[in-house]
Write a structure and sequence with these properties.
The complex is a heterodimer of chains A (about 500) and B (about 675). Chain A has one domain. Helix content of chain A is about 75%, strand content about 5%. In chain A, α4 packs antiparallel against α5, α10 runs antiparallel to α13 and α13 runs antiparallel to α18. Chain B has about 675 residues and is mainly α. Among the domains of chain B are: about 150 residues; about 50 residues. The chains are: A mainly alpha (about 500), B mainly alpha (about 675). Chains A and B meet through α1, α4, α5, α6 and α11 of A and β2, α5, α6, α26 and α28 of B.
């Protein structure tokens, strides 16, 4: 296959155009066009997985063409161990979220067109290796998300969408400034991330610090890291199910991916310096504080949203550890959180579609009415709790085992949060699914085949990665250890230490 | 030991119950509907019994090996290979795990068969067997794991199954609350357990041998001696203390014992299998498994024996006040687990494991007997509403009595061999205070057990007429397990006779290769040996057991003595305190649980009212400043006009450059514009 990365990125865009020119009155085909143009993505992702060379740290499937030569801007795509798992995740989540969108009943044309545009943007972020191109995709992703929440969302959709938009825009501006700084102050003016990483030692320490912080805030908003996280619960509560799935499944990972791809690779010395406070401490706050906030929620979806805040904290802590176990655990956790949280939001959507509310206290005893639904929810909940044998356990253990040597107290807090997580998860499960059946919901139907076939593949992935995590870990090791080593070895340039 | 025998059949011991679970969970509902419960029974019991048969085969294979080489390794695949961490999915069969496998599949198999009778009327029969099979699988993973993380998979896996089976009748909210409590309290212990593994791995790494494979840890453990740990402790002490904290969760020791009595909400076979015979002994097993590490930490050992002894004593006192037939047995289990910890805590690993085995026999039998009684009583568990059942349930009665004599330590029943050894061990290892508590505890045990026997089986029936009419002995599927376990309660102890009777200890000999590390041998050698004294102490124990029995007889059978005055001590405060389990539950609810809930509410408040407020305020500020700058612009008209004209000129200049004459450029532009227009239209329509 030639140009697999261009194909995987732009195939949805063709679908978008077809949807937009689809004749009036044929709207029922639109959703199938969306299916048709996300499926190849999944297949190409599978092909990439099969053909990925796990032993090299260099960029694979690279495509390198001049784009705006005057400014050294290239159309440069490629994947390595940092991004391959995210490409897989994006393909899986996007395909499933198309099916999750089948409940959308108004403005289907615009909805699916934006969904596919969003898909291209997300995939592009993970495969772009030219910073300028990366930034273009980053921005392309922002607008469809804004409309998807603001137009197809819940009652407070406009507030949530604007909040998401402004917050992310603020982050984008900071990333843009840092990008231009890297370009102008570089050894040679370039946006090529591989080249930038190779010349990492060129930047003065002061510049590294400033650029690092700007980039960090930009990415931290996406993760979302404390205290930039409050857009997330609002966005999730208002977003339609499929968009929540994408938001939690893929979008949040861009924050941590950006930190790995840009902060760690291009600014290793500053990464070394800030790892403790801005990744370790903030990550630990995310873990504990997110879990505490989740426990107090009364809205099912908001609770899951806060659990995301908590679980993304492990990714930050793992990166902060600067150990092989920590950084591999962090990226594995990104993947696992993507699949598990996607399940959780799909499950919330199932009950919201039927009961039209999400008040935890308003349910009760659903297990007797919807046994299949309750069983899959139980599975997803225990996966989110990090039950050994399921995927999140592996990544959390790797993160914590990696973090222990440098940050024993943070590790103890991170490990202890497993109690809080079990507390709010089991409590929620009990209130919604167990006990006597709430008479109001006597007639609810169990999972439809569509819902079933969205959830089960994710469950299978979660189970397989619990007993055979090597399926993902094998892809990551070489590149991640390389990046980690670079950060560990990074010393501030002598000139920068002096005033 | 360097080159263990590589085999490929051990995996099937583990995988058979897993297959049973998979079939029951994935197809059970349909199978039960189309082919009846018999198919479910066949899958559920068949897989476990097949695993038992295989375990017996493995045992025979092991006995054929010379004692020093009785280790088998069954490697499946690489599990986690990251950095220096190298963990496989692999099973390690040595004499200790062999014993556990035989108990789990043997006693477990019997309880599976029992369940076919006990659960026969339940509509979710398939779900019950699915969880029971999955439990068996998890427990086997726990004991057979070749590394500590795999052990932890089983460790939490059994917790999951315990959670699901306690709340099996989930329509009753209190059952699910008990399940939640069990899981969350266990997670507190697991917290300590995982931190122990992190520090153990890092410590071994610092010594140059990063590993968590149990046999390698055993090999390199001496390298940890003297290594500093955390909080002023040596590393070994830190690690072992945390591991023991994990054990207090799983094995219901003070202060994490609170979940086990509540766990009685589950169906009785679950109480027998999980909350008496197997899962709750996992902590004891873990300490015995890692004896090479624990023996290196005298401070931890002291903590273990003290906590075990205190638990043994206090749980026994609570047991003496309960009226629920299962609650008595639950506290009795907590107490007996305390005896096991008292043993391993002084370094008498063999006796601890021995008691683990005999306890599986007699406590399994007691719980199943209680289940048989509850079955006959139509669900009633209050002993005050029973009485005189021995005539109507003869098999249940006789087996229950045999198990009672065993747990009380009446010679020559199984419990005498194991428990008396433990009581002596604490003295022999120089812990007279612990000995005294264990000794008194044995007396209380005899009291509460015979109190239970008399209240349940003797006297006149105190239930309703309707119940009396329906009293019946349980079906053969249930009595089979009673008879086998009752029989084992009688003869199961003859594999290890007390030292003062004579040297006959095939059980201890079998386990010798496991408890053979230098540190463990040192601890074992510190015990005093005095056959005469040991015999004397045995007689002392017997005297107290007889006294407890006699007292129960006086009060609950003859009714000739009343001890109401006991309830009046300190204005009844003492009795109320014991009856209410020393108010530990209340203390937890008012302390840590309330604190967490309050912090959680405060965090959510802070998130909404402070952080989000700042975000919204910043947005408002931005809107205000843009309004302000708009105003400024309007009043600085000249500047604006100039700006506009300048901009126009500049834009014109720029636009000129667009006219490049390149067709490609135009096409891209048109495509982009059309796409954008279509998008905008679609959005506006929606």
């Amino acid at each position: 296959m030639t140009h697999p990365l261009t194909l995987i990125t732009f195939i949805p865009l063709i679908g978008m155009v077809l949807i937009l020119i689809c004749p009036k009155g044929q709207e029922k085909f639109i959703r199938w066009i969306a299916v048709l143009f996300t499926l190849p993505q999944l297949l190409i992702a599978g092909w990439l997985y099969a053909n990925f060379n796990t032993s090299t740290t260099s960029v694979q499937f690279a495509e390198h063409y001049a784009w705006i030569p005057a400014y050294h801007i290239f159309y440069f795509l490629g994947v390595d161990g940092i991004s391959i798992s995210m490409v897989l995740l994006t393909a899986i989540i996007c395909f499933i979220s198309v099916f999750a969108s089948f409940t959308i009943e108004r403005g289907e044309r615009g909805y699916y067109a934006l969904l596919l545009l969003l898909d291209t943007g997300m995939m592009g972020v993970f495969v772009a290796l030219d910073f300028f191109l990366f930034y273009v995709f980053w921005e392309v992703m922002l607008l469809p998300m804004y409309f998807l929440i603001g137009v197809w969302g819940g009652p407070r959709r406009e507030y949530a969408a604007i909040k998401f938009f402004l917050y992310t825009l603020l982050g984008s501006v900071l990333i843009l400034l840092a990008m231009l700084g890297l370009y102008y102050y570089g050894a040679t003016p370039t946006f090529d991330m591989v080249e930038l990483a190779a010349n990492a030692s060129h930047y003065s320490m002061t510049f590294q610090r400033v650029a690092w912080i700007a980039l960090f805030i930009g990415f931290a908003i996406k993760i979302p890291a404390f205290p930039f996280h409050t857009w997330l619960p609002d966005a999730h509560v208002e977003a339609p199910t499929a968009i929540s799935v994408i938001l939690a499944g893929v979008l949040l990972k861009m924050g941590t991916y950006g930190i790995l791809r840009i902060n760690f690779s291009i600014l290793p010395a500053a990464s070394h310096e800030f790892a403790f406070w801005l990744l370790g401490v903030v990550g630990t706050i995310n873990i504990v504080y997110g879990a505490l906030c989740a426990m107090a929620q009364t809205d099912y979806k908001k609770l899951i949203a806060y659990s995301s805040v908590s679980h993304m904290g492990y990714v930050m802590l793992g990166m902060a550890a600067l150990t092989e176990a920590g950084i591999n655990g962090a990226v594995l956790q990104m993947f696992n959180h993507g699949t598990i949280t996607a399940m959780l939001f799909l499950l919330v959507g199932v009950i919201y579609d039927r009961a039209h509310h999400r008040e935890i206290a308003g349910f009760g005893g659903l297990a007797s009415q919807m046994p299949m639904y309750a069983a899959l929810t139980g599975f997803a909940f225990f996966a989110a709790m990090g039950l050994p044998g399921l995927s999140a356990f592996i990544s959390e253990v790797l993160v914590l085992i990696g973090a222990w040597r440098r940050y024993p107290m943070m590790t103890i807090l991170g490990a202890g949060t497993a109690i809080l997580t079990a507390g709010y998860m089991l409590w929620t499960f009990q209130r919604i699914y167990l006990g006597p059946l709430n008479e109001k919901y006597k007639g609810l139907a169990d999972l439809t085949p569509r819902e079933f076939f969205m959830l089960v593949p994710l469950a299978i992935i979660v189970l397989i990665l619990g007993v055979y995590p090597h399926a993902i870990l094998g892809l990551l090791g070489a590149s991640l250890n390389h990046v980690n080593q670079a950060v560990l070895m990074a010393h501030a340039p002598a000139a920068a230490i002096l005033p | 030991m360097e080159h263990p025998l590589t085999v490929d059949f051990v995996r099937w011991i583990v995988l058979l119950p897993l297959a049973g679970a998979a079939i029951n969970f994935l197809a059970g509902a349909r199978l039960q509907r189309d082919f009846g419960k018999r198919v479910i029974s066949l899958v559920g019991c068949g897989t476990v019994l097949a695993a038992f048969a295989l375990a017996v085969y493995a045992w025979a294979a092991m006995l054929a090996l010379p004692p020093a080489d009785r280790f088998m390794l069954d490697y499946l695949w690489r599990w986690i290979y990251v950095g220096k961490l190298r963990l496989d999915i692999a099973f390690w069969l040595d004499p200790l795990s062999m014993l556990m496998v035989l108990i789990i599949t043997g006693v477990g198999g019997l309880i599976h068969i029992y369940s076919t009778g006990y659960m026969h009327e339940d509509e979710s029969y398939w779900r019950f067997f699915g969880w029971l099979n999955l439990f068996t699988f998890s427990m086997l993973v726990l004991v057979l794991a070749d590394n500590l993380w795999l052990m932890f998979v089983g460790w939490e896996g059994v917790g999951l199954c315990s959670f699901a089976l306690i709340g099996f009748w989930y329509k009753e909210l209190s059952n699910t609350a008990a399940g939640n409590k069990a899981f969350i309290v266990n997670r507190v212990g697991d917290w300590a357990f995982v931190v122990a593994l992190y520090s153990l791995f890092t410590g071994l790494g610092a010594a140059g041998h990063p590993t968590l494979v149990i046999r390698d840890v055993a090999h390199w453990a001496p390298a940890l001696a003297g290594m500093p740990g955390y909080f002023g402790m040596s590393l070994v002490t830190f690690v072992t203390l945390l591991l023991f904290a994990g054990a207090t969760g799983k094995s219901a020791q003070i202060p994490l014992h609170v979940w086990l009595p509540d766990a009685m909400a589950g169906p009785t076979p679950v109480s027998a299998l999980i909350h008496a015979a197997t899962m709750v002994t996992a902590g004891v097993y873990m300490v015995a498994r890692l004896n090479f590490l624990f023996s290196m930490a005298p401070a931890t050992m002291l903590a273990i024996s003290t906590v075990g002894t205190l638990t043994a004593f206090f749980a026994a006192t609570i047991g003496a006040t309960q009226n629920d037939i299962k609650k008595v047995l639950a506290y009795s289990t907590v107490s007996q687990l305390g005896y096991m910890f008292a043993a391993v805590g002084v370094g008498a690993y063999v006796d601890g494991v021995f008691h683990l085995m005999t306890h599986a026999f007699f406590k399994g039998c007691l719980f199943l007997g209680a289940g048989s009684v509850i079955h006959a009583m139509g669900g009633v568990q209050d002993m005050r509403l029973m009485g005189g059942l021995r005539k109507r349930l003869p098999i249940t009665f006789w087996t229950f009595l045999a198990a009672t004599l065993a747990i009380c330590g009446v010679p020559p029943f199984a419990g005498f061999m194991s428990k008396d050894a433990i009581i002596w061990d604490s003295f022999a290892h120089g812990q007279p205070a612990l000995w005294a508590l264990l000794w008194v505890g044995a007396g209380i045990t005899a009291f509460y057990m015979f109190r239970q026997v008399y209240m349940t089986f003797f006297g006149e029936f105190r239930g309703t007429h309707d119940q009396a009419h329906h009293l019946h002995e349980s079906p053969p599927s249930m009595t089979l397990a009673l008879v086998v376990l009752g029989g084992l309660s009688v003869v199961g102890g003859f594999v290890e006779l007390p030292g003062f009777i004579g040297r006959f200890d095939p059980f201890g000999n079998f386990l010798v290769p496991v408890f053979n590390s230098p540190a463990t041998r040192r601890v074992a050698q510190s015990a005093i040996e005095n056959r005469g004294l040991e015999a004397g102490f045995g007689v002392l124990s017997l005297a107290l057991v007889a006294a407890g029995w006699f007292l129960a007889d006086l009060i609950y059978r003859q009714g000739s003595a009343s001890f109401e005055w006991v309830g009046e001590i300190w204005g009844g405060a003492l009795y109320r305190t014991v009856l209410n389990k020393y108010y530990v539950d209340e203390a937890y609810a008012a302390g840590p649980v309330a604190a967490v809930l309050e912090t959680s509410r405060a965090s959510a408040w802070f998130d909404f009212h402070i952080i989000d407020w700042i975000v919204n305020f910043a947005a408002t500020l931005a809107v205000f400043s843009s309004w302000l700058s708009g105003r400024l612009d309007r009043y600085v008209v000249d500047g604006l006009v100039n700006l506009v004209s300048n901009l126009t000129l500049e834009a014109g200049g720029r636009m000129r450059r667009l006219q490049t004459g390149s067709i490609n450029g135009y096409l891209y532009g048109i495509l982009a514009a059309v796409t954008l227009a279509l998008l905008v239209r679609a959005v506006l329509r929606a």
